[in-house]
Amino acid sequence: MSKHAETVTLDPDYVLDEQIGYLLRLAGQRHAAIFQAQISDGLTPTQFSTLIRISEHEQVSQNHLGRLAAMDVATIKGVVDRLKAKGLVAAKPDPGDKRRSNICLTETGAALIADLKADGLRITEETLAPLSAGERKTLARLLRKIC
Amino acid sequence: MSKHAETVTLDPDYVLDEQIGYLLRLAGQRHAAIFQAQISDGLTPTQFSTLIRISEHEQVSQNHLGRLAAMDVATIKGVVDRLKAKGLVAAKPDPGDKRRSNICLTETGAALIADLKADGLRITEETLAPLSAGERKTLARLLRKIC
DNA sequence: ATCCTATCATTTGCATACGAACAAATTTAT
DNA sequence: ATAAATTTGTTCGTATGCAAATGATAGGAT
């Protein structure tokens, strides 16, 4: 039994638990926990997305990669630095543009992609487990509409 | 015209743009941008949620507040510290438990709540603008199911 | 040839976010 | 009453995430 009694005063006009921002945060938290438990190599969600995006493109500059993976230039820099430190990606200066460095997968990184995709499918499956097939499609459709 | 030709190789078995985690991140990004443009006082989403939760409870310990607002103990500490610095909340030591400090709204903080709720409703409205009334309810229902 | 603008990459600052480890205080179990 | 388990709050480390400022390079317009 709790020593500290709860005195809850709810405003019927503003229920935090029903606001879209709060729900997005909670859903993201649950997904992140599932992700961390399932993923190979201790990768983070952004590192994962970044690797997948590189695998879809032979050559990408760092900034362009950030746009492809929906990350700020400052964010993608840190992500790429950490992927470099893990030996999964490498950067080569662009021969035609001295500002650019092209990011690509290392052999180790390329060898990991198939496993990561399998992990990703399991993570999506577990996150969506409470939903029916129809509900999963509806959720994806509605989320895409508000992006 | 782009000098740097795109060579995109998509794997039909794993489409990042359809994965729930990626969509949640994108939707969260758009919501965060709308939030920041609309909110009073430069509050962040976590600071906002925390203030609303305090307004629902006369007395809350810091850790308990974190649980109410779905934040880690380390996270809620930083949030409460910044709300203290803004003069919106205050902490009083619990008379019956020397570990606890009870967090409450200051007068300034309490005076802000009504405005914040109005901001919150506008933010939800703008975020959900692409959806019909039925779709909004469906999205909220499905998100709640996967939390 | 030069100027303007855009792009690329980096850096700094602020604010989440969470795991892990810790000390102090409290509660529960024995 | 005392030992064990739990709760509270703190600190450290790592990783996003974005705004803003900086410097270098590139491309187009005059």
What does this structure look like?
Two copies of one chain form a homodimer. Chain A has a single domain (16-145), classed as Arc Repressor Mutant, subunit A. In chain A, a hairpin with a 7-residue loop joins strand 2 and strand 3 (101-105). The N and C termini of chain A lie far apart (44 Å). Chain A is mainly α and 147 residues long. In chain A, helix 1 (20-38) crosses helix 5 (107-127), helix 2 (45-56) crosses helix 4 (73-85) and helix 2 packs across helix 5. Chain A has helices at 20-38, 45-56, 62-68, 73-85, 107-127, 133-145; strands at 60-61, 89-93, 101-105. The relative contact order of chain A is 0.11. Chains A and B meet through helix 1, helix 2, helix 5 and helix 6 of A and helix 1, helix 2, helix 5 and helix 6 of B. Chain B binds a DNA duplex (30 and 30 nucleotides) through helix 1, helix 2, helix 3 and helix 4.
Decide which structural class fits the backbone of chain A.
Answer: mainly alpha
Work out the helix count of chain A.
6
Q: Total strand count of chain A, please?
A: 3
- The CATH superfamily of chain A is known as Winged helix-like DNA-binding domain superfamily/Winged helix DNA-binding domain
- State the end-to-end distance of chain A: 44 Å
**Uncertain segments of chain A:** none
Helix content of chain A: 55-70%
- State which percent range the strand residues of chain A make up: 5-15%
Radius of gyration of chain A: 20 Å
**CATH class category of chain A:** Mainly Alpha
Strand arrangement in the largest pleated sheet of chain A? 1-3-2
Give the SSE string of chain A: HHEHHEEHH
